[in-house]
Write a structure and sequence with these properties.
The protein is of the alpha/beta class. It has 20 helices and 20 strands. The strands form five sheets. It has a nine-stranded mixed beta sheet, sandwiched between helices. It has a five-stranded mixed beta sheet with strand order 7-6-5-10-11. Strands 1-2 form a two-stranded antiparallel ribbon.
């Protein structure tokens, strides 16, 4: 459906996982994950014959039942959508077992289908460091469920409460994503980033007209305002009249109206997530919670659950969206269906820093550079760390390509673009010259874990707290903030970007928040050493870390992808393993459609 992925689990260990988009270069690719599967098998050195089970993250016939029932209930208004969707269902989506057998030649094991929210819950709990915990999954929709509450204990999960389609927090948020001119299933994080520029002017309007929220977090949507059950859009005419006009056209200028709408739906989402988490705590009596499903990527809401939800600890699946369903399905089979033991220590999760994708050693990188006559400097690992830290300090923008690629939407120090967080100009430079994206979008800080509480307030008690997967938003500490001059305090909208708000302005959002990644020596040794060296030089243990890609493209996977991105942008240097590339020494870039493929296939 979207974010197709594959994961391989061997004897309970997550050996490999990757999204198909990284190989096809088609963002949010929904096609069969043939290349992702091929990678996973190569990484483990196994073949299709060695597989015992193939697990799929949904039950297609139950989902089809929901679609047909929904169309019948909405008839005749949904006839166009029905006609468009039926061919792909009848030809492909109802034939998943046949498709799996066809795509996995030689596979003789069993094919299993896991309920969508069971897959989310399994990915959230079984990969977590907890022996027992409450589980909350929230997304658009699976078969029927859109929200579930349950708990995990040792090697078992059980889901006891659910909210069913069409009542969906994920689809509500996506409706506002669509209405404000962003793309559904990929632009939700833009809406979250836009929210701090606005005021909560529409909260009452949303609560009074669109959603009825109960104290336990259960809710119902007023479907008169939405069009996603039967139409080809998310919102209908009644929704548009309520908010004073049609949806914003994509790429048109943003106004204070869109900013206020973004802020309002974000506040409603945070309120609802807090209530749902509180109810999960009440019905399970658990002191820890695991989050999964696409809405668990709303890191502002996650930060509030950590600080205000009443739990001792929280763990969020790094691939919380549908790509994580592959990982959850595999772990569900291993633990829940086969009954294998799971021993959690309460501290270390089972996801290995979520660096589960392909890696390229110096031999492969050097072969690529030499074959394509790309100017480069070969360094020792020590020199790469030292030189890169110096380049960041001197205000250069660097592509950083090291080790295994990340699984999930966040760059965590393997496929990253890095720069100096202390620069007041770097946020706009990166957005406009490197990422080619909207100027309002904030960047994330990567900080040495041991010093994180000296810069950010992740928890209310001012203690260090791990956030290795960049899934928690926290305020910058007051003593790191700058006093805003009187004339700047009254700025509104995008004009707020002009204000230097802290010692690390490039990663401080307009509400003094930051989407924090804590970097740990154990899981990210080289990235840790780089920031450590930068701290030694500057006294600051924080750098900018944004995903190594440009707008509209997936995270880079191969050295070829990295070089192409480097040459297409105004990036200054590229680090590929132990090789340093200076933009000034590179030949003029000529776009060749088959350049990457030729080398990769060789």
């Amino acid at each position: 459906y979207h974010d197709s992925a594959a994961c391989l689990v061997i004897d309970g260990k997550i050996v490999a996982a990757a999204q198909e988009e990284r190989f096809t270069r088609k963002k949010h690719d929904s096609s069969f994950p043939a290349q992702a599967i091929g990678y996973c098998l190569r990484e483990a050195g196994v073949t299709y014959h060695d597989l015992d089970y193939a697990a799929f993250y949904e039950k297609p016939f139950i989902k089809f039942e929901r679609l047909v029932e929904t169309y019948l209930a909405e008839a005749p208004s949904g006839v166009r959508s029905f006609i468009l969707s039926m061919p792909v269902w009848l030809k492909k989506k109802l034939r998943i077992p046949d498709e799996l057998r066809k795509q996995l030649p030689g596979f003789e094991g069993r094919i299993l289908f896991i309920e969508h929210h069971e897959a989310h819950a399994a990915s959230a709990f079984f990969a977590s460091p907890f022996e027992s915990a409450a589980i909350l999954t929230v997304d658009g929709v699976g078969e029927w469920a859109t929200t579930t509450i349950g708990q995990g204990q040792a090697n078992r999960i059980s889901l006891s409460r659910e909210i069913k389609f069409p009542h969906s927090l994920g689809l509500l948020y996506s409706a506002f994503t669509y209405y404000t001119g962003f793309k559904v299933n990929s632009g939700e994080y833009k809406l979250m980033g836009l929210a701090p520029y606005g005021e909560p002017a529409y909260v009452s309007l949303i609560r009074e007209n669109l959603i009825d929220i109960k104290e336990d977090g259960s809710f119902r949507l007023n479907m008169e305002f939405f069009n996603y059950c039967s139409g080809l859009t998310m919102t209908g005419d009644k929704f548009h009249k309520l908010f004073g006009g049609p949806p914003r056209k994509p790429e048109s200028p943003l106004t204070s109206r869109e900013m206020d709408i973004a802020r309002s739906i974000q506040e409603v989402t945070e309120e609802l997530m807090l209530k749902l988490a509180g109810h999960a705590r009440a019905v399970t009596a658990q002191k820890k919670i695991c989050l999964g499903g696409g809405v668990a990527l709303n890191c502002v809401a996650n930060g509030r659950i950590l600080r205000e939800g009443g739990f001792d600890d929280i763990w969020i699946q790094p691939a919380a969206g549908d790509s994580g369903g592959a990982l959850g399905s595999a772990l569900f089979v291993w633990h829940q269906l086969l009954g294998n033991k799971r021993e959690a220590d309460g501290r270390n999760d089972f996801q290995a820093g979520s660096c589960l994708g392909p890696s390229y050693d110096d031999g492969a990188i050097e072969a690529f550079l030499e074959e394509n006559k790309i100017p480069h400097e070969k360094c020792s690992e020590e020199d790469i760390v030292r030189k890169t830290a110096g380049l960041v300090e001197s205000q250069h923008v660097i592509g950083w390509f090291q080790g295994r690629m990340e699984f999930g939407p966040r760059a965590l120090g393997s496929r990253s673009i890095i720069a100096d967080a202390r620069s007041p100009l770097m946020q706009q430079t990166l957005n406009l010259k490197i990422k080619f994206r909207e100027s309002f979008r904030p960047f994330a800080p990567s900080v040495l874990y041991e010093m994180s509480n000296e810069w950010f307030e992740l928890t209310p008690d001012d203690k260090k707290y791990p956030s290795p997967y960049m899934l928690l938003v926290a305020p910058v500490r007051p003593d790191r903030r700058k006093v805003i001059p009187g004339e700047s305090a009254g700025l509104s909208g995008i004009a707020k970007l002009k204000v230097v708000r802290s010692e690390i302005p490039a990663v401080t959002h307009v509400d003094f928040s930051a989407r924090v990644q804590t970097v740990h020596r154990e899981t990210s040794p080289l990235f840790y050493r780089l920031i450590e060296e930068f701290h030694k030089n500057t006294g600051c243990p924080v750098i900018i870390n944004t995903s190594f890609n440009v707008r509209g493209e997936p995270l880079v996977c191969t050295p070829q992808d990295a070089y192409r991105c480097f040459m297409r942008t105004e990036m200054d240097f590229l680090v590929l393993g132990n090789f340093l590339l200076d933009k000034q020494r590179q030949p003029a870039w000529q776009e060749t459609s088959d350049w990457r493929r030729e080398f990769e296939l060789d």
